[in-house]
Amino acid sequence: MTCNCKKEPVVLGAMKLYEDVQLPKYAHVGDACFDLRAYISEEEVANAKEDGLPADEDYITLCPGQKYIFHTGLVFDIPQGYKLMVHARSGLGIKHQITLANRTGVIDEPYTDETLVCLVNEGKVPFPIHNGDRVAQACLEKVEPVVIKEVKEVPVKARGTNSGLGSSGVK
């Protein structure tokens, strides 16, 4: 017997902290992640200028080697048993060397403050981030409960104890 049941999608609540914040959405059908956008207010521009970053009206420029924490204007209501994973956008990283300072962000279910994204310019040229620019992407992932148990030894497996950190080579 087959089941033609459609699984209901998990609901991720998103609260806008400001009226003009855009709710996240998927760029294309079938995308694994939805986009997170920078929310740059007048106050944020002033803060960036105080930190020595070029900024004006609706943008903040990341100079080479600089990092900055961008607001999204969003608070997520992450369902119990899930986490929100924040990833760099490949186009920003490959074309402009703009990446996440922490490489991948993990937002735990109990976190209920604004979602922030720390970007770093690893390139050689300044790069402006405008209000509303898609600066990161996120996806909801299930978290399996784990019990950590102390053991006195670990069994040797097929790969042994001398495999890891590049043990399989590059070719």
Keywords for this structure?
single chain; 171 residues; mainly beta; 3-stranded antiparallel sheet; 9% helix
Layout of helices and strands:
Layout: E1 13-16, E2 34-37, H1 42-50, E3 55-56, E4 59-62, E5 67-71, E6 74-77, E7 82-87, H2 90-96, E8 98-100, E9 104-108, E10 116-121, E11 127-130, E12 134-142
Antiparallel strand pairs: 1-6, 2-12, 3-4, 4-11, 5-10, 7-9, 7-12, 8-10
Task: Describe it.
The protein is mainly β. Helix content is 9%, strand content 33%. It contains two helices and twelve strands. It has helices at 42-50, 90-96; strands at residues 13-16, 34-37, 55-56, 59-62, 67-71, 74-77, 82-87, 98-100, 104-108, 116-121, 127-130, 134-142. The chain has a four-stranded antiparallel sheet with strand order 2-12-7-9, with no helix packed on it. A three-stranded antiparallel sheet has the order 3-4-11. A three-stranded antiparallel sheet has the order 5-10-8. A hairpin with a 2-residue loop joins strand 3 and strand 4. The relative contact order is 0.21. The model has no long low-confidence stretch (mean pLDDT 92).
Continuous helix count = 2
Rg calc: 20 Å
Order of helices and strands: EEHEEEEEHEEEEE
How would you sum up the major sheet?
4 strands, antiparallel
Q: Spatial order of the strands in the main sheet?
A: 2-12-7-9
Overall strand count: 12
In terms of structural class, how would the helical and strand content be classed? mainly beta
Shape: globular
Stretches with pLDDT under 50, minimum 5 residues: none
Mean pLDDT: 92
Strand portion, in percent? 25-35%
Give the distance, in angstroms, between the N- and C-terminal Cα atoms. 46 Å
Q: Helical percent range?
A: under 10%
